[in-house]
Amino acid sequence: MKKIHKRLTYANVMSSIAVFLVLGGATALAAGLAKNSVGSKQLKKNAVTAAKIKKNAVTGAKIAGSAVDGSKVKDGSLTGADINLGSLGTVPSADKAKTADSAGSANTANTANSAKTADTASKTNQIAHIFYTAPEGSGTHTILSDYNGLTIKAKCPTGEDIELEAETSVNHALIDVVTAQDNDYEYDEDFETGEAFDLDEGHSEGFTEMYTAQYTNPNGQDVALIIHDVDAGDGPAFPGTPQESDCLVSGFAFGS
Description:
By secondary structure, this protein is α+β, with helices and mostly antiparallel strands. It has a domain at 127-255. Helix content is 24%, strand content 27%. The protein is built from 3 helices and 10 strands; from the N terminus they run αααββββββββββ. The protein has helices at residues 2-7, 10-31, 92-124, and strands spanning 126-134, 142-147, 150-155, 163-168, 173-179, 185-191, 197-198, 209-216, 222-230, 247-255. A 6-stranded antiparallel β-sheet has the order 1-10-9-8-5-6. The chain has a 4-stranded antiparallel β-sheet with strand order 2-3-4-7, with no helix packed on it. The longest helix is centred in the middle third of the chain and has 33 residues, at 92-124. It is rod-shaped and about 160 Å long.
């Protein structure tokens, strides 16, 4: 015993203690730590970093409600792919924009409807310009206007009044005419196909004669005429010009 005691030195003692601590620590690790024995109090501040956490180990269920707010999220770290858009409410300004967009669509529809109405009007309401000149003695009738069932023809015979006639392609139509110069009125209440209605018969009251006529057929088609003419016996029309002519018929037909 004395021999052993004499051989003990400070280095021997310290090395023995070190061996004891190593073996004791290993035994403790082997035995394992008790469940929940290490908590936030046992961890040194900043001891656990992102590099020490397994990927996807921290889920939403492990984070306390409201624990992560805007101050704890790095600027620019979240993108649209990271956010469930269905969980977001309507932004007030976006709601107004939605309303404005609906109004814009309604306005577009209204504009389209107006365009449709205008297109319909252009198809049902038509104005045809009538302009006819001919030398005296023209032997054939010229068609001046032909639509909505009414055809207007003219001929410039020698030494006679212009022959200005109307024909219908729809039976049982109605036509009437008023002459401005003598306020005379003529009509045919049962205007049939194959008939010729004389628009200017017996109305030579001056250099020109003016006529207003109205035609309607059973299909609901209408034509209104406003025309005047110059006969060969009263002419020529446009004297002294390249357009000088023995006979003239001019005006317009409005159909609906």
